[in-house]
Amino acid sequence: MSTQSYEDARDKVQQFTGASLDNYVVFTKNTTEAINHAAQLWSKIPGKVLVSDIEHSSNLLPWLAGNDVIQYRTNSDGTLNIEDVEEMFKTHGDIKLLAITGSSNVTGYKTPIHDLAELAHRYGAMILVDACQLIQHQKVDVLPQDTPRHLDFVAFSGHKMYAPFGGGVLIGPKDFFDQATPYQIGGGNLTYISRDLQLKRFPTVQAHDPGTPNAVGAISIAKAAEVLESIGYDRIHEYESDLVRTAYRGLKDTDGVEVYVSESELGSVIPFDIAGMDSRLTAEILRDDYGIGVRAGSFCTYELMRKLKNISDEQDLNISEEIDRGITRNIPGVVRASFGLVNNREDVTRLISAVNEISQNGIEHYSQMYKQNDTTGTWTKR
Fold it and tell me: Do 284 and 183 reside in the same domain of the chain?
């Protein structure tokens, strides 16, 4: 019964993402493992992997281990131009894969994934989309493989779509997986081992699914997909967009606040800073004094953060030298407010009001209440 429920979950995820029967749905622990899985298989294939400079480390570091990586530089605001990406394909004639985020985890900018897919296919490459920050907000449609705009590989995490932690998904072409040596081998994914230690396997998705699976994680992802579909992505988009747009305009109109995304590129997050305030301090105050949860830091997107904060080469060198001495205080960061189905208008109003009050009080006021660690840069109340 549990095996059937697990396989039913695979079918449900396939339908949820619009993947055809020519694709496998491989369950993983999270997006990071899914991309590591793909990167390991791709490392056996000649050619280069093209990644953007707005990627989360989870869609950058795995490719550096065994693949020849070239990085595409986006615009100063982290958006991209299709024409510039095509120039990379023309300049580097041996690109085998384009790895791209579906939505920036810092700015919320949504990349034109299907346009990029069509471009990659035109030059004989495939595309992998990190949909971790997208799939809970917008329908991700893999599309049939015989259409130029189809997505070859898609990776995402269950917890981003309101399932429990510890479950993820990698979707990709059957032909690719069937020809590849599994990323991990062990119990359950090989059909037979001969006396002379020859490995026998069938062309099935189970060949890439070793050991006892996280059945609860897989089944919960399928259930989360059902819930999102029952709500409807049009309703989700309308609801969340209203919240984010209201929050954006309120923060933009607040004296002393800098917002690092334009209204035309709004997604589900808003990166901002208060003038004169360290981003980590702002986050601490919002939590301690207002009960508002935001995050602060670089969010594993160091090049994008250098763009947004205008970090020069000299500053970057100084930061790197400090890190070699164990000092992380000056790693650039911003405050990020994230929005989803769990939020409402009251949350937005409270955020705007709190940020306005913090900005008016200023750093002099809070420096008497908080102290900063000279090494790590973290703030604690005195």
Answer: no
> Which residue, of 231, 253, 273, is where some domain finishes?
231
Q: How many domains does the chain have?
A: 2
Of 39, 265, 52, nearest to 153 by C-alpha is 39
Maximum Cα interatomic distance, the chain, rounded to a whole number of Å: 76
The confidence score (pLDDT) of residue 312 equals 96
Averaged pLDDT for residues 299-312: 96
Distance CA(133)–CA(154), nearest Å, equals: 12
Give the CA distances from residue 356 to residues 251, 286, 362, in Å, rounded to whole numbers and listed in that order: 8, 11, 10
In the three-class reduction of DSSP (H, G, I as helix; E, B as strand; rest coil), residue 142 is classed as coil
pLDDT digits (tens, 9 = 90+) for 43-65: 999 999 999 999 999 999 999 99
Asked if residues 113 and 104 have their Cβ atoms less than 8 Å apart, the reply is no
pLDDT of residue 1: 76
What lies within 8 Å, CB to CB, of 5 at 6+ separation is: 215, 219
The pLDDT score that the predictor gives to residue 93 is 87
CATH number at residue 336: 3.90.1150.10
Structure tokens at 208: 């890439």
Domain match, 200 and 223 both = yes
Same domain, 310 and 213: no
The gap between the terminal CA atoms of the chain, to the nearest Å, is 56
Q: Of the residues 205, 231, 257, which one is the last residue of a structural domain? A: 231
Q: How far apart are CA 272 and CA 259, in angstroms?
A: 4
Q: What is the pLDDT of residues 133-142, one digit of tens each?
A: 999 999 999 9
Domain holding 299, by residue range, is 233-381
Q: How many whole angstroms separate alpha carbon 362 and alpha carbon 336?
A: 19
Residue predicted with more confidence, 92 or 201: 92
Are 214 and 328 found together in one domain?
no
In this structure, the answer to whether residues 245 and 102 fall within a common structural domain is: no
Q: Full-prediction pTM beyond 0.85?
A: yes
Residues 10 and 154 reside in one and the same domain: yes
Do 253 and 295 lie in one domain? The reply is yes
pLDDT in tens, 254-301: 999 999 999 999 999 999 999 999 999 999 999 999 999 999 999 999
